[in-house]
Write a structure and sequence with these properties.
60 residues, mainly alpha
Length: 60
């Protein structure tokens, strides 16, 4: 689980680990996270999905 994955350190960590592990990522800025997940899918051919219905990170 990586929080804050829409930018900065959280995004960098998620991007580095995405090719090696199955990740659960979340962020407060859902729109930026959704855009980044789309880019991640296109760049790495890694299956990824974005579940916007929940809209919150655990503990929020």
């Amino acid at each position: 689980m990586i929080t804050g994955a829409s930018s900065g350190i959280g995004q960098a960590i998620a991007q580095r680990l995405a090719g090696h592990y199955k990740l659960a990522i979340c962020a407060r800025r859902q729109d930026r996270l959704a855009d980044w997940v789309i880019d991640l899918r296109q760049e790495s051919q890694i299956p990824a999905f974005f579940e916007q219905e929940r809209g919150r990170c655990p503990g929020e």
